Amino acid sequence: MIEIKDISKSFNGRKVLDNVSGVFKDGETSLVIGASGTGKSVLLKCMLDLVSPDSGEVYYDGRPFLKIPEKERIDIRREMGVLFQGGALFDSKTVYENVKFPLDMLTQQSEADKRDRVMFCLKRVGLESAGSRMPSEISGGMKKRVGIARAIVLNPKYLFCDEPNSGLDPLTSIKIDELIQEITQEYGTTTVVITHDMNSVLSIGQNIKFLYQGKKIWEGDSKSILETELKELDEFVFSNHALNQLRG
Ligand SMILES: Nc1ncnc2c1ncn2[C@@H]1O[C@H](COP(=O)(O)OP(=O)(O)OP(=O)(O)O)[C@@H](O)[C@H]1O
């Protein structure tokens, strides 16, 4: 379980996160949603300690991530998997090498064990025969799958996905969403997905936190979001043309 408490952050005197709190449960896909510029990525960066919040704390299973000594923080980092926006693959490495990279950097495993783990993860995302290909030779959806395989290769407790559907067509997006949700349930990871994709919200939103101008102003699930009476959330949800027409 991850708990964030009263996270605030300003840039140049402008508050972009304002006392954001919440809980992300094990085995659940939690979504952080909101319009562009509302602070989603900054919140994710605070949770990963890539940006220091001005105040607040992030607890990983009770461990205060921002206050503990660096050595303990590194232990927690090893328990995290991150799917970066755009995949962030190394263009000069093969698919296999990309997935193996965290094992090379952070473990002392034998080459045989690493190979077994990489092949297991590639198989899990449906790419067991793509290991020798270069990122430039595969589609956007496959790149996301490679990113997911790399994010789970260290068997993380905590999985972070930053805009996992950006640049994908709707059908491929659904497949990536389903894969993230299946992995979350299979391995019991605490999964945090940053998105403004309403398809994701409706299909995998077990828990949804809505940010508006740096504040968390609503929390619920994919059923309750359609019945919201909160003006700001209603505008966000029904800015999706198809949904608005359905409502009409
Ligand atoms: N390093 C920084 N320095 C100054 N301002 C920043 C910095 N990082 C983010 N911001 C500002 O913080 C605000 C929130 O940005 P953030 O990237 O979190 O938005 P977002 O909700 O993730 O948007 P999007 O959906 O477009 O990615 C924006 O106004 C952004 O310009």
Largest sheet, strands/sense/barrel: 6 strands, mixed
CATH superfamily: P-loop containing nucleotide triphosphate hydrolases
Order of helices and strands: EEEHEEHEHHHEHEHEEHH
List each distinct ligand once. Answer: adenosine-5'-triphosphate
Average pLDDT reading:
92
In the predicted model, the low-confidence regions spanning at least 5 consecutive residues are none
Strand content: 15-25%
For the record, the CATH class is Alpha Beta
Secondary-structure content class: alpha/beta
**Rg (C-alpha, Å):** 18 Å
Helix content: 25-40%
N- to C-terminal distance: 39 Å
The CATH architecture term is: 3-Layer(aba) Sandwich
Tally of separate domains = 1
**CATH domain topology:** Rossmann fold
